[in-house]
Amino acid sequence: MYDLIVIGGGPAGMTAALYALRNGKSVLVLEKHGFGGQITYSPKVENYPGTREMSGNEFADKLLDQILSLGAEVELEKAVSVEAAGGHKLVKTEEGSAFEAMTVVIATGVKHRMLGLPGESELVGNGISFCAVCDGDFFSGQTVCVAGGGNSALQEAILLAEKCKEVVILQDLPELTGEATLQSILRSRSNVRIETNRKIVGIQTKDGGLAGVTVSDRVTGEERTIPCDGLFVAIGLIPENGPFAALAELNEYGYFASGEDCLTRTPGVFVAGDCRSKSVRQLTTACADGAVAALAACRYVNERK
Description:
This protein has about 300 residues and is of the alpha/beta class. It is built from seven helices and 17 strands.
């Protein structure tokens, strides 16, 4: 039986493993795809303290190497349930495995809602981005499009308008749905163009990178191409917390309704990272959650050994 099982191999999950291992605990990390999570889509990370520049993949590789060197065990399996049985937890996977631990940190992260266009995934990190804070500087003085019209899209557009030559907001509904204050800010910017009833139906490339987007007018059906250097997709995030709803309360959007202490209603089960309800989702906040959750798990284990 492990002291801790971490569900999710992103920055929050691997940081949780790191802190638990350095506290002398045995740790198993379950990751269904590849280690690193959303950060691996960032070709450059320039806002992580103490590191001038690195790629998201580089960060993930180094963190994985670090926890493996400390004795972490990893399994490429998808956790589908956690059962609280007596003084331990039983984690079952889609592949049919079952693992026991005294504590569990759920760090399942989120996935960005995509447009569903051919070639879209291949351009993530090479013209298509999801975070203006992370990637906005790469498009300074250039033209970018923002897909979406809600608060997240408008906030992204405001940040981009400070750096880019032109920002084109493409909303597939008749009007923007974000707050009036945000709309007012954007409408006052001379380098922002708002187009509603515009559905992105295609992506144009040149030399392997993004060159423009093709949009369809939802009223007339007319299609045209908008040249751009970048496309920021802000049409929502999808948490994957449903299988664990019996252990930890979810809010109306499906995120874990846990505070900065990363606690849940189930003793010995903690949550960390983007899967938790929070106002800021950045690499630094994910790592911070991992540390908080792991130290709470260590205290739980120490009190029962």
